[in-house]
Amino acid sequence: MEQDVESPAVTTRKPKLPKQAREDLPKQLVDQVRAKRKIQRYVRKDGKCNVHHGNVQETYRYLTDIFTTLVDLKWRFNLFIFVLVYTVTWLLFGFAWWLIAYVRGDLEHIGDNQWTPCVNNLNGFVSAFLFSIETETTIGYGYRVITDQCPEGILLLLIQSVLGSIVNAFMVGCMFVKISQPKKRAETLVFSTSAVISVRDGRLCLMFRVGDLRNSHIVEASIRAKLIKSKQTKEGEFIPLNQTDMNVGYDTGDDRLFLVSPLIICHEINQNSPFWEISQADLDKEDLEIVVILEGMVEATGMTCQARSSYVTSEIKWGYRFMPVLTLEDGFYEVDYNSFHDIHETNTPSCSARELAEMNCRARLPLTWSVASKLSQQGVLEPEGREKKSTTTLITQEEGLEEQTERNGDIANIESESKV
Predict the structure, then answer these.
(1) Which GO terms fall under biological process for this protein (predicted)?
(2) In the chain, how many domains are there?
């Protein structure tokens, strides 16, 4: 389909375009092809999941956990609800105070010194609204005071005081949790823009770098990695975005990080790795994504923090290593974050880890044969006569053991018959 679209455009427009435009046209087509092959991320580089929940029928579940719902809202909606809740409660209780004054007739005896109102100096809805604010916020200027001749006013005062305390605890707690969310702490946890594949200790490894920009450390930091790739089972079932764990040191404890300086996280490509049979040529054709998750507790608040990032196929560089960032200065170590994302090319075989392991095995076999041949040539191995003699001795010893066993069996049978 792409050939049908591109070929007429090139043939019809080529004679009419200037030379510079004709030279730029293939580049534009290449960019279009690359854009079409662009992988849709499951997790963005900033750690946000690129998943939208649609057609949720049971929306009432959000109201059952209203506190978490308010915390998860954006700041503009959260502040709007914060102001709205306080304003509505002040207006409702202000209307209640005005209604009590209206029913009792306090508004008709304004300025009458012989009349004892429910609230002194309450002469309208505005003054009732101000008295509601003073009551709920416990300001108490002293100008408007409730009297002891109004039992319904005393009851309303108790109700507003209790409900006002609940509203304060709920809204202030919501704002405190939103302000102190550990998501902001994750902003200073950085991941390298690229992951690399190179040889380390004779084995292919996939590596990426993590670092912490703050001086306050992440306590009990741990790292995880997952491969996101669609698969089809043997039964024909298609599983979109299947998640596979990648071992980054779980069995050895290397996944527990002491994140004081930037660290290179290594995934060894062995038989249990999903990259075991993937070569450099195969990697360019794969449609996969690696999601890395860094977790730990914030030292200042003790809250759990999680930072995420991902690497798609185009961000996995085969045959590269990370540049060193740690240098020893006069009495301290210095980290150069300008080189945090820098990589350099290194000699790396383009074959898969499985093929590399097979080549290493074949390379070791001739060495074993040559050692055995050299030992036989030097007379270290026993001569044929000595081997035959030792073999005869072993056969004789085995026959003697068999005869002794038969004799023991006969004696045991005779003893059993005599007992009977």
Answers:
(1) nervous system development; potassium ion import across plasma membrane; regulation of monoatomic ion transmembrane transport
(2) 2
